[in-house]
Amino acid sequence: MTPLLEVVGLKKHFSVHRGMMQRRAGSVRAVDGVSFRLHRGETLGLVGESGCGKTTVARTILRLTEPTSGRIVFDGVDLAAVSPVALRALRPRMQMIFQDTHSSLNPRLNVGRSIAEPLLEHTSMTRGQRRDRVGELMSIVGLDSKLAGRLPHEFSGGQRQRVGIARALALKPDLIICDEPISSLDISIQAQIVNLLADIQEEFGLTYLFISHDLRMVKHLCDRVAVMNEGKIVEMASARTLFREPDHPYTRALLSSLPRRPGRS
Amino acid sequence: MTPELLDDGSRDLLRVRGLHTQFLSDRGLVHAVNDVSFSVRRGEALALVGESGCGKTATMLSVLRLLPRHRSRVRADEVSFKGRDLLGLDDEGMRRVRGAEIGMIFQDPRASLNPVLTIGRQLTESLEVHLRLGRRAARDRAIELLESVGIPRPASRFDDFPHQFSGGMCQRVMIAIALSCEPSLLIADEPTTALDATIQAQILDLVSELRATREMAMIWITHDLSVVASLADRVAVMYGGSIVETAGARRLFDAPAHPYTQGLLASLPALGEEGRGRLTAIPGQPPDMTRLPEGCAFAARCPHAFDRCTLERPPLLPAGKGVPLREQRAHSSEKQAVSAEAGARAACWWDG
Lengths: 265, 352
Fold this sequence. Notes:
- The complex is a heterodimer of chains A (265) and B (352).
- Chain A is α/β, with parallel strands linked by helices and 265 residues long.
- Chain A has helices at 54-61, 84-90, 111-122, 127-140, 157-169, 187-204, 215-221, 239-244, 249-256, and strands at residues 5-18, 23-38, 43-47, 69-74, 77-78, 94-97, 175-179, 207-212, 224-229, 232-238.
- A six-stranded mixed beta sheet of chain A has the order 6-7-8-3-9-10, sandwiched between helices. A four-stranded antiparallel beta sheet of chain A has the order 2-1-4-5.
- Chain B is built from 14 helices and 13 strands.
- Chain B has helices at residues 56-63, 91-100, 109-112, 119-130, 135-148, 154-157, 167-179, 197-214, 225-231, 249-254, 259-267, 307-311, 325-330, 332-342, and strands at 12-25, 28-41, 45-49, 72-75, 78-81, 84-85, 102-105, 185-189, 217-222, 234-239, 242-248, 317-318, 345-346.
- In chain B, the strands form two sheets. Chain B has an eight-stranded mixed beta sheet, sandwiched between helices. In chain B, strands 1, 2, 4, 5 and 6 form a five-stranded antiparallel beta sheet that branches.
- In chain B, helix 7 runs parallel beside helix 8.
- The two termini of chain B are 24 Å apart.
- Classes of the chains: A alpha/beta (265), B alpha/beta (352).
- At the A-B interface, helix 6, helix 7 and helix 9 of A face helix 8, helix 9 and helix 11 of B.
């Protein structure tokens, strides 16, 4: 079976400019030859410390950032070789959930409108159809559809993340990239959102790339885990194997930094 | 009235009784701290745990008198440090306590350091002001301090600016500044939250080591229960502006008494557990601090809430008299001994 997503030799180098003439002074290898496959229905965790390149990997997959080199093949289609029109047709199938629910929702749009935006952009639904779909999406993520007319600031962080998830689901995607989706939420809310992500994955057969520095949640949610350090994947294994027998010294350092208690371990 | 958290007054370094703090926000009057009492003994590490907006930072800022006066109202029956009344001190007296006797570190080390002064200058400043050291002596002492917090080649980093340091190194510098006057109490507000996991572990090790060698007391404010476990002697859990449970760190994790603490611990994914399953999430969301309910702030999310919980706010009662009564009936003598020893208390009406 072909993987849903295949990333081969992905590189993203940012050039660094210095001085008044902005002369090119070198480059930062944010992503330096990353390869992995993501199968349908699977959750791959991408872990590493800030600056290791994990968010850049996500952004290049969605073509929010142009890769320097390497191939990204989504459902058999090489995204670099495809025409802009065909790329636009593929976009609805790849969505992202962001860390910061303050900046990822337009503060001036009511949440119903925010959820409906992708429908407006990518479908020919009528106003009534969109309203029904928004109501349906809100109930999927556990929000009362009566709240569709409210603005984001009237919601708590957890509720705003539910709005973000509803919007990501609007176009029935295959792949959702979750970039630190719970790290800005209150601790008593994190488990709710993690459960919601697991529920919708099962219900809609979603594939996740789950970017996080929370190793506990990664172990809980992911089938396989890729550990990144300085732009490279230094280890990739099943979640169970990785946590039981970490191989790479960096992975061991990362795992040993995890306090043992609390939690039944 | 909330019962005293600690029996014997003489060993208390910091004692806070009946603290209430309110401040004005765009959304109305925030009841940030509601009748909070606690104390810290010499050399003790107390963790103040809770999620954002629960009042843990407001509690410490009230004690240190760092809240903007025109927008906040702080009152308390007692805030005393080494037996001195902090509420009665004038601004100059309070400044002398902060920095010289109580060290502070905050979440974002870069925001707390002055970007246009060298690391060395920021360290020697407090040494010259508080310890009245001369330039030379202050410089030598500062380099020693940088070395003690694990900054490599401290003498050569002395004239560097904050932007030349990584986040973890900046936090080490902040710790060095906080420790510079050998305070008897260190207050740390989420000092490792902005740092990467491996750096966080280094900072925690460093603080534990320094605490052991200096017999310094500490209040560690955090939302991260896993940090608490490795660091604190005693834990106070805050919710909705009140302390809802306080216990020895071990006991808190082994036998949490308040339904909120129980819920938090149950919602964490276990590390060793095989298979996924669902997490046991706490339903609902934290209360709006501008409109706190009459009764227990957790009642709306609590699986055990009954009539009284929504009508009357429960005081901190010895755990065992409150929550785990059902278990206690089964083997009463044993449980009582544990709770008496650890001084565990929970603010909860539920008794099984």
